[in-house]
Design a protein that fits this description.
138 residues; 4 helices; single chain; elongated
Length: 138
Amino acid sequence: MNGLGIAIAFVWAGMVLAISFLEAPLKFRAPGVTLPIGLGIGRLVFRALNLIELGFAVVLLASQLVARPGWSVMMIIAAPVLMLAGQLILIRPGLNRRTDRVLTGVDVPRSRLHHAYVITELIKVVALLGAGILLLQD
């Protein structure tokens, strides 16, 4: 059994669920939290999450190189790693530019990049849960 891979898959999925689908939307409903304050908090939280995710991705991939799981496990593990790369390289820079504009007082419309980020988060969570389940069975 690949205990390290199992732990990382489930902890990573739990972190994404807790932050992206619980903390992020709820902070804007808290009394006194304005859009700029919420965006500033979100920027800090997601920067920290993404750094931890990068570490998880490296350790998860390295642990699987040692464990040598089947092809299906490696393919499902590749999905969250690719989603994270896409978020960091393609989506987050655009969202950061939008946040910069909002923080300087510019009124900008919602970005479709936000929807892309949510979709990649969903794919990431499903893949991580699937990877954890497959690793439990391995």
